[in-house]
Amino acid sequence: MAQLSAFRDPAQPALLSNYKPAPSYCELMGDGSEERPRLLDFWKRLEQLPFEDLSVRAADALRDLYERGVTFTVYSDRDAIDRTLPFDVIPRVLTSAEWEKIERGVKQRVAALNLFLGDIYGAQKILKDGIVPRDLVEGNSNFRPEMKGVAMPRDTYVHIAGIDLVRGADGEFYVLEDNARTPSGVSYVVENRHLMQRAFPDLLEGFNVRNVSDYGQKLREKLLETAPANCDNPQLVLLSPGVFNSAYYEHIFLAREMGVPLVEGSDLVVDDKRLFAKTIMGLQSVDVVYRRVDDDFLDPKAFNPDSMLGVPGIMDCLRAGTVTIANAPGTGVADDKAVYAYMPKIIDYYLSEVPILNNVKTYTCRDPDGLAYTLKHIDELVVKPVGESGGYGIVIGPKATKEELATCRKAIKAKPENFIAQPMVQLSVCPTLTEEGVAPCHVDLRPFAVTGEETWVLPGGLTRVALRKGSIIVNSSQGGGTKDTWVLYEGASNGNLSQSQSQSQSQSGAGSMSQAQSQSGCESQSQSQSQSQSQSQSNRTATKTDKRDQTE
User: Fold this and answer.
1) pLDDT tens-digit profile of 395-434?
2) How far apart are alpha carbons 192 and 61 in whole angstroms?
3) CA-CA distances (angstroms) from residue 222 to 159, 340, 456, 460, 497?
């Protein structure tokens, strides 16, 4: 048994003595039908920890994150723009068998998304066959006609995906949302683990937990695998909208982990349909761009002509096949909440498979039957606007006031195509440290997948936790926090102790491009915010596109 830094006084109540997760499924205890906890050895470890010691160490850990600059930006809060993302020290633990199913399901999902995007920007067979309504796709604000006929290397459009999962009362995982544009939050996955290793080695000791520190290396490998043909030594950069972006910390982190230059649009230039980076050694070719700039601001010649964040002519390079942009422009149509409802059909159409991870039941209000059901049962459903993110615009029927329901009903009737509705899922809970003790708080899970020749899924992903009492909203912009996510190796499926695994912290690789390149850079609570900062640092007005990058 591992040696703990402090032991609970036997006269004091055990850490979990007042922990009551029912009626929700508990990530530690299970559904309550078993006589012993689902993860027995981890439960025993927690029971030995004194609450006061854990609370002090948790506060120290939060200060450590802030001092290391692990922050995100909240533009809606005038008093605290840069925040440390709240971190809960009690990890969420997944068994080997659970992870194996999640991994297979995420890979299946990403494969279907890439086939779907290649088709709608190509032959459009799925639209011609009537599987997905044409107007739902081509009328979507994230559909980019400029991508029609553009062949992506290895047929990969979604290079980096974040698939949001929830576990229901039945203990099964369901897909809640697909993030196929510029999914954020992976830096917190790695930093959370490093923090646990620094501050809570006694909690980790003896548990055979899978490593997450090689994400940067894997990301670099997969992105370079999608470089244009005939690139002997492909060069990769991370394109960021600037220092005022909500996820700027993550841009710095990922560039460092991959060992590649972090650049802004002004650091790049197009010449004869080829992309170059400006360096003190002169222009150097760029073959792969991991962009954290929204479509609208990526290329002022192709999209928003007022953009100062992107690179004029970069779309010409993409069409000419001289550069790879990850994720490809136009991928946002695939993570639209209305398109999400068709994902089971999309998986069946392209892969002839049954979804490994099911959707949450979804009613699309653009469909007359879905609209009628939603309006009749609005007080029982969760209503979501299809174009919003970050938890914004959601109306939770069972918790809404009569006035809120009336306003929601009016908005749905006015523009039904803008809404979907879902049953309220009884999200699973995880023991979470609060000022009063350990309480059951709702959690979700965002596994991250990177695709090159094949798809690799980071073991674990980002566990987000609803820290506000009674809340089911886990988004950081709505008061949520994060947990470390442990995936146990096979043989530790019941949380049994095994030989401690040594995990070295991630080391930044050496970039092949000149590091003398501009390392200034930066995603958005608004990309238009970042642009306005380029024009006048005094203007800090955020727009709705900012919301996507706050680990929504």
Assistant:
1) 999 999 999 999 999 999 999 999 999 999 999 999 999 9
2) 10
3) 8, 26, 8, 19, 34
Q: 352: how many CB neighbours lie within 10 A of its CB?
A: 7
CA distances from 392 to 145, 242, 368, 428, 478 (A): 28, 24, 25, 21, 8
DSSP-assigned beta bridge partners for residue 166: 174
Which pLDDT value is given to residue 220? 98
- Beta carbons of 237 and 289 less than 8 angstroms apart: yes
User: Please, are residues 391 and 477 in contact by the beta-carbon 8 Å criterion?
Assistant: yes
pLDDT in tens, 142-200: 999 999 999 999 999 999 999 999 999 999 999 999 999 999 999 999 999 999 999 99
Pairing label, strands 462-466, 437-446: antiparallel
Pair 158, 114: CB distance under 8 Å? yes
Maximum distance among all alpha carbons in the chain?
76
Q: Each residue of 268-288: pLDDT tens digit?
A: 999 999 999 999 999 999 999
- Kindly give the pairing relationship between strand 82-84 and strand 282-285: unpaired
Q: How confident is the model at residue 551 (pLDDT cuts 50, 70, 90)?
A: very low
CB 289 within 8 A of CB 275: yes
| Cβ within 8 Å of residue 525, ≥6 positions away | 73, 74, 75, 76, 245, 246, 477, 542, 545, 546, 547, 549, 550
Q: Please, what's the b/e burial string for 148-174 (b: 16 or more CB within 10 A of its CB; e: otherwise)? A: eebebbbebbbbbbbbbbbbbeeeebb
Considering only CA atoms, give the Rg of the chain: 23
* Residue 484, amino acid: D
Q: Which whole-number Å values give the CA distances from 348 to 82, 122, 180, 344, 516, in the listed order?
A: 44, 19, 20, 6, 49
Residues 6 or more apart whose CB falls under 8 angstroms from that of 54 comprise: 15, 89, 433
Q: Given this model, what pLDDT does residue 520 score?
A: 36
For 479-505, give one letter per residue: b (16+ CB within 10 A) or e: ebbbbbbbbbbeebeebebeeeeebee
Q: Measure the N-to-C terminal CA separation of the chain; round to a whole number of Å.
A: 38
Confidence of residue 435 (pLDDT cuts 50, 70, 90): confident
Q: Tell me whether strands 462-466 and 480-487 are parallel, antiparallel or unpaired.
A: antiparallel
